Amino acid sequence: MSSNENLLYSLIRSKTILNLNSKLLFGLINILVNGLIIRYVNLNIIGIANIRLKLYYTTILFISRESLRYNIPYLNNIGSIYHYINLIWLIISLQLLIILFFFFLTLFIKTNNKQYLGKFYNQPSFIYILSAFIELLSEPFYLLSRITGNDHIHIYIEFIASTIGIVIQTYLVINNVESSLLYYGFGYLIKSIIITLTYYIYFLIKRKEERYRLFLISSFNHLFIKAISPFVDHKLFNETIQFFKQGISMKILKEGQIYLITIFYLISYEEQAIIHISYLLEDFFPSVIFSTIQQISFNYFHKIFSTRKIDRTMIKTNKYIKDDQILLREKEYNRQISTPNEERTIKLNALTLYNNLIRLILIISLLILTFVIPYSSSIINIYIGSKLSINSKYVLYIRLYLIKIILNGINGISQSFLESIMLIKQLNNYRNILLYKSFIYLLLSYIFIRLFGIIGIIIIDCLYIFGRIIINNYLINKYFIRNSLNKSYLFSLHYIFLLLISLIILNISKYLIDNIFGEISFAFSFIIIITFLTLIQEKQLIHYIYCIIKLNY
């Protein structure tokens, strides 16, 4: 087995798979309990709680912690740890002002259709905001565990807290339907309390040596702000601000439309509930699978294009060493010792993996589309109810949303590859350009939503992501100096014919089988057969799947 294969396998069996399993399990639980809520609670309430009010929660967390999470330094002495902890609390303290701002904002920016709110709006707004603040109190432990490579602790804690929170939330909402908007926020409040308390209790019960191994600190006193000079490392502070600016573009691309919908009331609350339901499906499958494949590919490409030797003199002379700086030195060093043959081998290995990952995502996508296109109405009928399943607009939205997830999966792989081959300066320029593009995307989103309603959200998303895929593939082709990537998108004629025949058979089966569950059972059985025939043809993909199963089960 080659060193490149060893690297890939070690990444596959790492915390990424643990994270995947926890997300899949929680996604399934989330879908099931929300399916119960949908049968009891008005869709307008569901839209307000899970789109408008939840936006306060996610925005506060993003502003307060994402730049810190992206900017994880290398800490080599206790002085640098104190500076870093000071920086963490400084950033979080500044967010208190933002939290107060958001709270007062909720008092003045009301919603339309107040009959759905009754007297409950300000209280749940406060609960969502309080939940975000309590969760931020655990952030120092999470960041320090990331530095020591023990962030698997957070995976377990978050899964347990999220599961308990969503179950209690469901119970409270179902048993208090008239005031359900008030009780929606309790799920997040319980989750945040459990996360924070668990971190502090976990730290308390550990011995000092174990605390230091896990968190680089051995006492609660080390978590307090220290009156040292300088108060924070200015270089790290500036880098954190830069990452915050870069994160703005990603936030706009991910939730920019939700801000538009919330501020300008572009679509109804019922339609916002449909968006929430599509998020539930995305969080479970196939987006979780695609994001995991993307994470594995990023880690692999990130390491394969850097030398395996690190210039340790940097660590000795700096308190804070950024991963990007280390990689920059590594790449410069690598260019000095790599022979043309070694460089060619590295590129070919990366290209082989890239092509296989793209093909894997495409095959999963084609199989899902073959099933979902004929049975969209039946799936909505089972999960939401017959009233919405006959609404052709919602059925079309779910179908287009699935296409968006597929495009996101392909774009994620190409994005991972590009970010791994770019130099730091190129990467910063690329992200700055992305920020400008995100504002253009936001403007186009407003226009499309005004013109086409909820369908306009998906149309502009698909067009934007498809454009990024084209640009990314152009840059990657340019890197390899030849057009060697197109084979990932090509399938044999007999396989395409097989999928078309399957699509026709599944469409016909809808009219021959009266029972909805009978339709779904037949479709699943048929898809299993098609999947088996697909695996026979795609032997190289079987090899990758076999490796994942062998190393993790």
From TrEMBL:
Signal peptide boundaries: none
Tree of life domain: Eukaryota
Report the main location listed first in the record: endoplasmic reticulum
Q: Where are the transmembrane segments?
A: 20-38, 84-105, 125-143, 155-174, 186-205, 357-384, 396-418, 438-467, 488-509, 515-536
Say yes or no: keyword Endoplasmic reticulum present. Answer: yes
Task: Note the InterPro entries from the entry.
Answer: RFT1 (IPR007594)
* Recorded metabolic or biological pathway in which this protein acts: Protein modification; protein glycosylation
**Any GO BP:** glycolipid translocation
Record GO cellular component, one term: endoplasmic reticulum membrane
Pfam families assigned: Rft-1 (PF04506)
Q: What membrane topology is given?
A: Multi-pass membrane protein
Tell me which UniProt keywords the record has, alphabetically: Endoplasmic reticulum, Membrane, Transmembrane, Transmembrane helix
Q: Where in the cell is it found?
A: Endoplasmic reticulum membrane
**What job does the chain carry out?**
Intramembrane glycolipid transporter that operates in the biosynthetic pathway of dolichol-linked oligosaccharides, the glycan precursors employed in protein asparagine (N)-glycosylation. The sequential addition of sugars to dolichol pyrophosphate produces dolichol-linked oligosaccharides containing fourteen sugars, including two GlcNAcs, nine mannoses and three glucoses. Once assembled, the oligosaccharide is transferred from the lipid to nascent proteins by oligosaccharyltransferases.
Q: Which family does it belong to?
A: Belongs to the RFT1 family.
Output this protein's name: Protein RFT1 homolog
- Which species expresses this protein natively? Rotaria sordida
Cite the source lineage: Eukaryota, Metazoa, Spiralia, Gnathifera, Rotifera
